[in-house]
Design brief:
Elements lengths: L4 H8 L6 E10 L3 E10 L2 E10 L6 E7 L12 H4 L8 H7 L3 E5 L12 H10 L4 H18 L3 E11 L1 H12 L5 E5 L5 H7 L20 H6 L6 E6 L7 H11 L10 E6 L8 H15 L1
Parallel strand pairs: 4-5, 4-6, 6-7, 7-8, 8-9
Antiparallel strand pairs: 1-2, 2-3, 3-5
């Protein structure tokens, strides 16, 4: 039986939300522009950061960026501008110079929303039959709605991108929402049942625990919902958060979904690489979005 979007939403306790712009401050950076956004999502103030080419006429292709975890609770959306130790350099300017409008928001418990601990937030939600990741995805989808509504964005050409937690945010949202035309994700695609069997699952935060999910689906079957939309998966073969056995199992579940559209699925596995972006991954991502969004 095929895992359905409706059932996925139910397990996540996914909530339909909208993001309303409250204020915007523009910061010119020469060949690109930064917009510092304040959004209202479900009655809560949420910081957003957006980069776009300077002087470009729209509507432009866009990328919804999912920021990573890495224990950097104070960073959140600033990752788009400041980067992280496992990124080659900040991607906001890179995507802007390549012609994309790129947007990220603080996920719950990160950035300006880091008012409670991950443990506290996740435990409270689990008691209510919800999950922290379900709340993150609900907000991520709301951000997508705002991004798609902008006059400078072509709503038919929006991609999703992220590394680590941002990887899972990106391909899970693409499974939930067909407004994502193409998704590229790095360093966190794996079969969680295999991760548990290997004892590797505890490297992930409690945010990712979705009660009952593994009785019905796993990484590969969730990614399969994205098909036949384009999907790029990049992994490092020495990454403890996505060990090769877990990646192989997830890919075995995913590939049949692209059997009739094999050119829409790209998989890049780099030997000797841990939980980090590499120059080859960066090149693959830029080429992927060039093909499918531009």
């Amino acid at each position: 039986m095929t895992f359905s979007v409706a059932r996925f939403r139910e397990l996540l306790a996914f909530e339909d939300r909208t993001a309303t712009l409250v204020s915007s401050h523009i910061e010119p950076m020469g060949d690109y522009v930064i917009e510092h956004l304040k959004l209202d999502i479900a009655g809560l103030p949420v910081r957003g950061i957006l980069t776009r080419p300077a002087g470009a006429s729209g509507p432009l292709p866009a990328i919804l960026y999912g920021h990573s975890h890495g224990g950097g609770y104070a960073i959140g959306a600033r990752e788009l501008l400041d980067g992280r130790e496992y990124l080659l350099d900040p991607l906001g300017p890179v995507f802007a110079r390549a012609g994309y409008v790129t947007m990220v928001i603080d996920m719950p418990i990160f950035g300006e929303r880091a008012t409670v601990s991950e443990s506290s937030a996740a435990k409270a939600l689990l008691w209510e039959g919800k999950s922290l990741f379900g709340q993150m995805l609900s907000d991520h989808a709301a951000a997508l709605g705002y991004l798609a509504s902008r006059e400078d964005v072509d709503a038919d050409r929006i991609g999703a991108f992220g590394l680590s937690m941002g990887c899972v945010l990106s391909y899970w949202l693409a499974a939930l929402d067909t407004r994502i035309a193409a998704v590229a994700h790095l360093c966190c695609f794996a079969d969680f049942r295999t991760m548990i069997a290997l004892g590797a699952h505890d490297g992930h935060g409690i945010y990712l625990t979705v009660p009952g999910l593994l009785r019905e689906a796993d990484g590969g079957t969730i990614a399969a919902i994205v098909a036949p939309r384009p999907q790029l998966i990049c992994v490092g073969e020495a990454d403890h958060l996505s060990p090769p056995q877990a990646v192989e199992r997830a890919m075995a579940d995913l590939r049949p979904a692209y059997a009739e559209d094999s050119d829409m699925l790209e998989f890049f596995s780099e030997p000797g690489v841990g939980h980090e972006e590499t120059p080859k991954m960066r090149s693959a991502v830029l080429a992927f979005f060039q093909r499918h969004l531009r």
